[in-house]
Amino acid sequence: MNSSCSERWREDPTPESQQACQECGLYLQGSRMIWGEGNPKAPIMIILDNPGAREDREGNRIVCGTRQTLRHAISAVGLDEELIYVTYVLKRRPLRTYDKEQVRSICIHHLEAQLQQQQPSLVVCLGNVAVQSFFQNPEVDVKRLRGEWHKVRGFQTTVAYHPLAVRRRPNLAAMFKEDLSFVAEAFREMH
Hints:
- This protein is an alpha/beta fold.
- Helices cover about 35% and strands about 15% of the residues.
- The chain has a seven-stranded mixed beta sheet.
- It has one domain: Uracil-DNA glycosylase-like domain (Uracil-DNA Glycosylase, subunit E, 3-Layer(aba) Sandwich).
């Protein structure tokens, strides 16, 4: 059963062993660690660059535009949200400038550990930052890789535009839905 997009996805608690992680330095910016959202046992893992806002300036819970756009598209292609787990290259939301290459190279080990533990059937990278980090190649991009399956880090992986890019450029909406339909079709063929 699909949840209303006004509700929050269940947040997956950060493992106790990682809660005090200070390796990358993003903890100094004051954002908390977000391990992931949705069903940790889901067969489809979606990877974004970093968590978005969880609360507004007054501390009230919100659903950010990224998650709202993603959830609408998931619903539109007929995927149940229980089939989805969303996680991030960076586990903290950057609030200021940071050394992107260094921080991503440090933080990717959290994602690698999640993949090994959760063993999703399909991986979907959203946006060039997630794609380049996951594929370990700064030259690749969504435009050239979308619509195909790639074996990356031992996982069946595809790519799509970032939901915020879709919000900013409505002409990408049809392609975003097409890419998520591609994922839904592959999942249905597997099950």
